[in-house]
Design a protein that fits this description.
Elements (H helix, E strand, L loop, with lengths): L4 E8 L5 E7 L2 E7 L8 E4 L4 E4 L1 E6 L22 H13 L4 H14 L2 E9 L7 H12 L5 E7 L10 H11 L3 E5 L8 H15 L2 E6 L3 H17 L6 E5 L8 H14 L1 E4 L11 H6 L4 E2 L17 H12 L4 H11 L1 H6 L15 E4 L4 H7 L4 E5 L2 E5 L2 E2 L2
Parallel strand pairs: 1-4, 6-7, 7-8, 8-9, 9-10, 10-11, 11-12, 12-13
Antiparallel strand pairs: 1-2, 2-3, 5-14, 14-15, 15-16, 16-17
The structure holds zinc ion (ZN).
């Protein structure tokens, strides 16, 4: 293969310094204070814009979004929020929607053009859809190879024990190419925390893969489930390989109880994903981070049967997290930014992430003074580079 070398000049890094970044074969080979370099022909002038690592979209559903399809009005639950009823509404909506591969591409283009180049998507695997959704999303993932890195989670949207055949389907999903095994509210959905987690951790152990569990359960029920997940993670030596998504219950606890469980989560090396959604209590991001817990984020639902919101912009997600967490100082705003970048990289165990020599040249340019300003201003003109190659500009993916 021909060696390619590109120099990105006048790039402002998070520390405020202007630098030249040299990229060799897709990786950063040097970072030098800006000065003239005549020896490299391929020059991209960043023009003093802020250059940050690409965003990590750590939790999204590529199979269920209607983004780019016709508008589907949100249908409220009959008697307050009910996961079972929402799943039924989703099945109705999906039957009338555009083909899944089209909708997944729309959503991917949206995320990439906003600067997300690493993604974890949950894909529904259950008795009703079987492995059909996964087959479709696996094909779409192949189309996007070299533009965005995608991890897929086999997600039991209809429960594991309540939906016959799901354990076997989830195991087969991994054999087909899904990367992680998922779970869903072991207590409130399957009414059997042990039985549910036996399947999830069993598949993970057998296949040597990571875990990412949806946990919407509130208060004590959520906290108990997290304690059980932490205990199993530690017992199996899976620290760093397990994530709990949403973990709303952590937001219901009094500060002392929250600090206690945060210590356990940190010791177990379990990551917590929050998208700081609407009117839900959500995990106390600052408290968790102070205890050493890795926190990451994602758009979750975009224009789907669960809610009408979502724009695939992880910088806006950082703002939402900061806004809802009452973050005002530069350090706090930078923490929210960390959640959508380095926190995501840690949870997804990404190799070669960040603006550092040896890392992959996956970065985004922003018209902002510095990171805290970027979080509140959410500047839209962006250039997105994957391994040093321009893949999106002005809101469009370049192919
Ligand atoms: Zn989700």
């Amino acid at each position: 293969m021909r060696a390619t070398q590109t120099i990105f000049t006048n790039a402002k890094l998070a520390d405020g310094t202007l630098n030249n970044i040299t990229v060799q074969d897709g990786r950063i080979s040097s970072i030098d204070r800006a000065g003239s370099r005549q020896d490299i022909k391929d020059v991209v002038d960043i023009g003093g814009a802020l250059l940050v690592p690409s965003f990590v979209e750590g939790h999204i559903h590529l199979d269920t979004s209607f983004y780019g399809d016709k508008w589907i009005p949100h249908k409220p639950c009959t008697n307050g929020f009910d996961v079972h009823e929402r799943v039924a509404f989703q099945a109705e909506n999906m039957a009338a929607a555009a083909p899944m591969d089209e909708r997944a591409r729309n959503q991917l283009d949206l995320c990439i053009s906003n600067g997300a180049l690493q993604m974890r998507s949950h894909v529904m695997v259950d008795g009703s859809v079987g492995l059909k959704s996964l087959e479709t999303i696996l094909k779409v993932r192949e189309e996007y190879a070299g533009i965005i890195d995608i991890q897929l989670v086999a997600f039991p949207q209809s429960g594991i024990l309540k939906s016959p055949g799901t354990p076997e389907l989830m195991d087969e999903a991994i054999a087909m190419g899904a990367d992680l095994v998922g779970g869903l509210d072991p207590l409130s959905f399957d009414r059997d925390i042990k039985g549910h987690l036996d399947v999830v951790f069993g598949i993970a152990e057998k296949r040597g893969i990571d875990i990412d569990i949806h946990l919407h359960d509130a208060g004590t029920m959520g906290a108990m489930t997290i304690e059980e997940i932490c205990a199993r993670t530690t017992a199996l030596g899976m620290q760093g390989h397990v994530a709990v998504s949403h973990a709303y219950g952590l937001g219901d606890l009094a500060p002392e109880a929250a600090r206690k469980i945060a210590g356990l989560i940190a010791r177990s090396g379990v990551s917590i994903m929050t998208n700081a959604p609407g009117n839900h209590n959500f995990p106390p991001v600052a408290l968790l981070r102070a205890a050493g817990v890795n926190v990451f984020s994602g758009s979750d639902n975009i224009r789907d049967s669960w809610w009408p919101f979502g724009d695939g912009d992880m910088l806006r997600r950082a703002e939402i997290i900061a806004y809802r967490s009452g973050f005002y100082t530069d350090a706090e705003l930078s923490a929210a930014f960390d959640v959508v970048t380095a926190g995501g990289a840690k949870a997804l165990r990404l190799e070669g992430y960040g603006i550092t020599v040896g890392a992959k040249a996956d970065f985004v340019t922003l018209a902002a003074e510095h990171v805290p300003e970027a979080v509140v201003a959410i500047p839209k003109p962006r250039r997105v580079f994957k391994e040093g190659r321009l893949v999106a500009e002005n809101g469009s993916v370049i192919r």
